[in-house]
Specification:
By secondary structure, this protein is of the alpha/beta class. It is about 30% helix and about 20% strand.
Length: about 475
């Protein structure tokens, strides 16, 4: 790989992945003045010795679900540090969630966030979801029309569900008329009060209050039922269910699509790769935690516990589920029921995590490790490389539609400004606090080695991240 003083790039004998074209294989690319001027697919003798195990070139990733914490909690993350983390992880477009302080429930907050993005100088595209309700309190619709006018790409009360069914119905109809989706955090809060970990064997043994699968299933069923009613009056209504974590919820979504409902969903890397035995101290991937019949193994019986229990780095919302659910989430990515892999990047300060398990802030800092976790599934033959990249690019782009500069060009498109990531699957990197550019160091992957070190990220024809020794 060679780069000049400007945004010029030539990569030869690499593995190209173009999910928009449904194609991968040996090839070469040339970028001049930030424009992808040539994409050459190699064959025959020219392709000898080139495989997907080496340097990979793919379109830059898109994250539908990122928490940037600015305004209000800049100690955990700023817009600038979040954009830097995104570029380090190979992301060239990210969508900020509205649970800031103040919440992104009116245009001035949006303008403030976008001003911080401009001031950062990062070429990574920042999009934002507006709040559904004022203060995300679930009682009164936010200024949705005004938020749409300034540029939000959807509406969400994430961190909380829209608790009132009538308000949720009105929001779906209003957002549909504006041509924007509702991004719903599916949780029946009455079932999760004081809950700490997935309701099941691990929580029982550890003495943690259970968070039932029914809390998500009930909320998903309600949202789908209301959507089915709303689309009769407002055909533009669209629902996106974020960080889905259970097999039964995914089954409902699959059935809803078969009925023609306009619903999409995403799953997170931690929900398809980690299970609740990580709370007990296991550090094996979820697909390693099931036996030959697909049933979760007992982490106390098979020597899986290698770390102390109750690590707050694995306290997330929704919680890490049983291994069977995690495998179902991965299967949903593989078969397309899950449209996208979304990080739910949730950085926190050390003080917010250095407390008892049940009192800790929920969330994992995930922008910089998402690729490595996805590649772990690829390396285990659980997920094709092309599909993994598709779920990080084309899938989220379809959810966003024309509200991103990437619309219609999430591929290796000659003549377009370069939006791409270059990573080396032969190189592993160790997740350390120093290696992470996010201010949030809260990840259970600290100390672990991940495949696929990002060498270069280009966004809108500019270098967003370049490894020091690339």
């Amino acid at each position: 790989m060679t780069t000049g003083g400007g945004p010029d790039l030539e990569i030869s004998r690499a593995w190209l992945v173009d999910p928009a074209a449904g194609r991968e294989g040996p090839g070469e690319i040339v970028v001049r003045d930030g424009i992808l001027t040539a994409v050459t697919w190699l064959s025959g003798a020219d392709a000898d010795g080139i495989g997907p195990e080496g340097v990979v070139v793919a379109p830059g990733f898109i994250d539908l679900h990122t928490h940037l914490r600015e305004p209000g909690n800049e100690d955990a993350e700023t817009v600038a540090s979040g954009l830097a983390a995104a570029a380090h992880g190979g992301f060239t477009t990210i969508c900020a969630m509205p649970n800031t302080s103040p919440a992104l429930d009116e245009p001035s907050v949006y303008v403030r966030i976008m001003g911080a993005a401009d001031a950062s100088g990062s070429p990574v595209e920042l999009l934002a979801h507006g709040a559904v309700t004022v203060g995300r309190a679930g009682e009164q619709l936010a200024a949705m029309g005004e938020l749409a006018d300034v540029g939000v790409v959807g509406f969400s009360d994430d961190g909380s569900p829209v608790r009132s069914a009538p308000v949720f119905r009105a929001a779906l109809a209003y957002a549909g008329a504006l041509g924007l989706p509702i991004v719903e955090h599916a949780e029946e809060s009455s079932l999760t009060k004081d809950a700490e970990a997935n309701d099941g064997y691990v929580a029982t043994v550890l003495g943690l209050r259970g968070w039932p699968v029914a809390a998500e299933l009930t909320a998903v069923a309600r949202a789908l039922a209301i959507l089915g009613d709303v689309v009769l009056d407002e055909p533009g209504a669209r629902l996106h269910l974020t960080h889905v974590s259970t097999a039964v919820s995914l089954d409902l979504i699959r059935l809803a699509r078969e009925r023609g409902l306009p619903v999409t969903c995403d799953v997170t890397p931690h929900h398809f790769a980690m299970s609740d035995d990580w709370v007990a101290g296991a550090r094996r991937w979820a697909w390693e935690a099931v036996d030959g019949t697909g049933i979760a193994r007992d982490p106390w019986a098979d020597g899986a516990l290698v770390a102390p229990p109750y690590s707050t780095s694995v306290r997330v919302n929704p919680p890490l589920r049983a291994a069977e659910d995690a495998v179902a989430c991965l299967t949903a990515v593989a078969d397309g029921v899950a449209d996208a892999i979304a990080t739910d990047h949730a950085p926190h300060t050390e003080v917010d995590k250095a407390v008892e398990f049940g009192a800790a802030a929920t969330g994992i800092s995930g922008l910089e490790t998402a690729l490595g976790v996805a590649l772990a599934a690829v390396d285990a033959d659980r997920l094709p490389l092309l599909r993994a990249i598709e779920a990080l690019t084309v899938g989220p782009a379809r959810v966003l539609g024309d509200r991103t500069r990437r619309a219609g060009s999430v591929g290796l498109v000659e003549g377009a400004p370069a939006d791409l990531v270059v990573f080396d699957r032969t190189e592993r990197w160790t997740v350390t606090t120093d290696a992470l550019l996010s201010r949030g160091k809260n990840t259970p992957l600290l100390g672990m080695d991940l495949a696929g070190r990002v060498l270069l990220t280009m966004a809108a024809g500019r270098i967003a991240y370049e490894a020091p020794d690339a």
